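Please study the protein below:
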Amino acid sequence: ECDWSSDVCSSDLGFFSGTKVYRAALDQLYKVDKAGRADGYQKVLNTCAACHNVVCPGPLKKIGRLRLSTN
């Protein structure tokens, strides 16, 4: 479930729930047609942000920069 060694990875159930939601969103992104990719990508980022809001807020600023512009 986790690519690095830390206490969060070994003991936080919220983290593991977040990774499962993230993986599901990522799987869906790979299945959508070209027209739905932007929305699917945004959903993946939303799952990242939701988990990081609870477990580790450090990357939230960088996650925000990955969002697509809405113009």
Notes: Helices lie at 7-11, 13-31, 37-54, 60-65. The chain has a mean pLDDT of 82. The first helix runs from residue 7 to 11.
